[in-house]
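ok so I'm stuck.
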Amino acid sequence: MPQVFTFAFGDEDVEGGQVGDRSAAQDVDKSRAEEASDQAIAPYELHFDDMYNTVQLQSSNNGTITLPRRELFDIRAQLMAEDTNLDKVQAGLSADDILPRVYEGGFKTWECSVDLANYLLSHSSDLLNILDNPCAIVELGAGTALPSLLLFRLLLCSKPSPIPVRRSFWLADYNPSVLRLATIPNLLLTYALTANPVPLASGDLEMTHSFLTSFHEFLADRNIYIRTAAGNWGPRLAALMTPPSDPYPAETLILASETIYSPESTLAFTVCLDETMRRCEESGCRVRALIAAKKVYFGVGGGVDEFLGALKERGSEGNVVWETEGMGRGVGRCILEVTRGTQ
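replied:
not stuck anymore, here's the structure
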């Protein structure tokens, strides 16, 4: 059973203790979404120092590793303690899995993100070779960021490099509230559970000045850099994730899960992915992209075939590196490695 961690300030997680199934989350009230937001959120960068807090999930393959994630009830508790206007994040804290252009499901841990984390774990020796050198991990549609948490944990457990090398995590989600209340808190809890700078009394993690200072000092000592950005997918978000002023790494690994669940999201995500890969390749950086998804998202027109079609239109292609067939009423899932075309 997953262990639950909360913050020391403090109903029910909409996931019900399980990972989410995005194929069953598409019956959304689009009229409500349009009323709530006539425009998509324009991308903008968020500063790491403005974020804090955290909970748990288990991922296993090629051995077992326990990774943390924050529970929604704890996010609610924090918001109530802050006396925050809940209307701004109400969509993500209600029974709605997705509200287009309002909330894109980032508070939940989706099934394919577990697949991708398991796949990465089974290839951990290859990943360690990447992490030993200047590299960047880019997760688009990060949400609870399970795949990035695994790679962050591998760095936490590795020996410091005798020659300082820069390792960057570039994490993007549509909603800034998801980054502040889920993505970054999960990184903090991963650090607390792995590096163990402070004891976890009764499952609580105190967000003290000394704890946050130790976290920043660890990042500086290991030359680990974290950038976050919020907003809709497209070239502008790609530019925020790979700004010209930032030194390009030797290798960039792009990760994404459950990002192609509708025709609209598939097109926007493909453009953003292509632009991010282009910027990396033109800088001389080696780039690899792994995209986890269900083969079909019933009722909304999204799925792997549609994604492959969008890639083909841009001269790119995707090859299946892992897949599983649906059992019973389940939907088949796969992981694609994307190769960018030259056009």
